[in-house]
Design a protein that fits this description.
It contains 27 helices and six strands. The chain is mainly α.
């Protein structure tokens, strides 16, 4: 039987569409009028010299170093001062994360060995639980900058969880490789990644031997993990790197001296001859040390410093990061031995960062988590539907198949279909129409007595500031049509779908 659409339903939907289309034409502007419009292309305008006012800088910084700033974050940052707040976030071990840790106890595969995960009847359980744990941390952890950096490195050292045994190995890569080294020295993280069974399986290194060296890991190690495609290496260098890593493998069930799923160097498969990679000479007979010499060499290379600095600046500052900032970060990388915490300290206090408001937009995962955070959504046990919506938006953690990791520029994500998906998700979330997620808009707007109050209260909560007058007037007009209580979900959803909420 076909459901009947009442005149009231039609008018309400028409009003939402009209308001949404009008809001889409309202471009965000920062207080100093320095930001380029949010659109499909990276900004090409010269970098401004005016630093935003204190409150605008606070909002800008919290957007960049979190998965969505909440009122509690603003209050904490204001009470400490912005510099002290950044420093606190750079030391996540000082922040109490016990609430999240207790919730993580529900994910039993996090503490299993790869072999135990492999024996589970529900083969997808390790994948589902690692994704669930990741989203939980991003959503609820007070260690927000740390979770942003973990995501950065997870993308840099991307592993597609759906390939072969990565479904049972990626959990250990997350827990033992990425997380312990996220704010440490790059060379340590690089070495840990090179020894990661998940990485070795994903890039076909585990079966590489002296009779037929596999070049996949060698190529991505140089092109994507360290010196970049512009690093000055040749195909002969890739072949030499592949020879150096022969024998770097993963223990299987028949390897009685090592647990299945752990790193194993198979000496009999290693090419023990002399090798030369760029200007690095590797003598014969080195064994496992051959690969480690290359990791040390590449991990401290000047082109690696530039490549990592560029990617950090792209993540935190702009799609086309300023050369001046890349140079500063490269110098810091070299002087600090690739210390990520020190590089972030320099980046977040730079003029280039302060002047970059409006230069980045949220990727789908950032939009998704920030919507849950600012609405104070309550997630029930039937939350799998949420991940289905995230899949529709296009960015489920660990599900990017190529080794490049998810793109980090607006032109990839700011498409018509992508923006429509965000608009739909925001409206459905606010209206309580996503199974497993509840939003109490009445509680969030308890102090609002008029359409104007509702728009301002939700704008400040969702954006950290009031909307500009053009967008504000559109929403006030929408909220004024009919019953204010009935319009709460529409106002909240429209703000989340607006260009202003897409700014990171």
């Amino acid at each position: 039987m076909t459901a009947k659409i009442t005149r009231r339903d039609f008018l309400k939907t028409s009003g939402l569409l009209a308001a949404g289309m009008a809001l889409a034409a309202c471009r965000p502007q920062v207080e100093t009028e320095m930001a380029a419009p949010v659109g499909p292309s990276p900004p090409q305008t010269p970098w401004p010299t005016t630093v935003p006012a204190d409150e605008a800088l606070l909002a800008h910084t919290l957007r960049r170093i979190s998965w969505g700033p909440t009122p509690e974050m603003f209050e904490r940052a204001r009470s400490l001062g912005l510099d002290a707040y950044i420093e606190e976030q750079l030391h996540p071990e000082t922040l109490d994360d016990s609430e999240v840790e207790s919730l993580l106890d529900n994910f039993e595969t996090l503490t299993m060995t790869p072999g135990e995960r492999d024996e589970l009847e529900k083969r997808a359980q390790p994948i589902q639980e690692l994704i669930g744990a990741t989203l939980l941390r991003q959503w609820r952890s007070p260690r927000q900058l740390y979770e942003v950096v973990v995501d950065f490195w997870s993308n840099h050292f991307n592993i597609f969880i759906g390939k072969n045994q990565c479904r049972v190995l990626k959990t250990d890569d997350d827990l033992d490789v990425i997380r312990p080294n996220a704010l440490g020295k790059f060379a340590d993280l690089l070495s840990a990644s090179a020894h990661s069974p998940a990485m070795l399986v994903y890039l076909d290194q585990a079966s590489s031997g002296k009779r037929a060296p596999n070049e996949n890991y060698a190529r991505e190690l140089m092109e994507l993990h360290t010196i970049s495609v512009d690093g000055g290496y040749s195909h002969d260098d890739i072949i030499e790197v592949a020879r150096a890593f022969t024998g770097w493998s993963v223990a299987g069930r028949r390897d009685v001296l090592r647990k299945a799923g752990s790193f194993l160097f198979r000496r009999q498969m290693h090419d023990d001859g002399e090798k030369r990679v760029m200007d690095l000479a590797i003598p014969a007979g080195g064994g496992e040390e051959d690969g480690q010499m290359i990791l040390d060499y590449l991990g401290h290379h000047e082109m690696t410093a530039r490549f990592i600095s560029t990617k950090l600046a792209r993540r935190f500052v702009a799609d086309e990061p300023p050369a001046s900032l890349v140079a500063k970060l490269s110098q810091t990388f070299t002087e600090s031995g690739g210390d990520t915490r020190e590089m972030l300290r320099v980046l977040l206090r730079s003029d280039e960062f302060r002047n970059s408001a409006g230069q980045k937009v949220k990727r789908p995962l950032e939009f998704f988590i920030s919507a849950l955070r600012v609405t104070n959504a309550r997630i029930g046990s039937r939350s799998r539907a949420l991940v289905d919506y995230l899949r529709q938006l296009g960015q489920v953690p660990f599900f990017w198949s190529p080794p490049t990791g998810y793109p980090d520029t607006a032109d990839w994500w700011m498409t018509t279909s992508g923006l429509l998906g965000r608009w739909n998700f925001g409206l459905l979330l606010a209206a309580g129409m996503i199974r497993g997620a509840e939003v109490d808009l009445e509680s969030l707007t308890a102090d609002a007595a008029s359409p104007r109050d509702v728009v301002d209260v939700l704008s400040i909560r969702f954006l950290g500031e009031k909307l500009p007058d053009d967008a504000r007037d559109i929403l006030i007009d929408f909220a004024s049509q009919g019953d204010l209580g009935d319009n709460l979900a529409g106002v909240a959803g429209l703000i989340m779908g607006s260009p202003h909420f897409q700014v990171r």
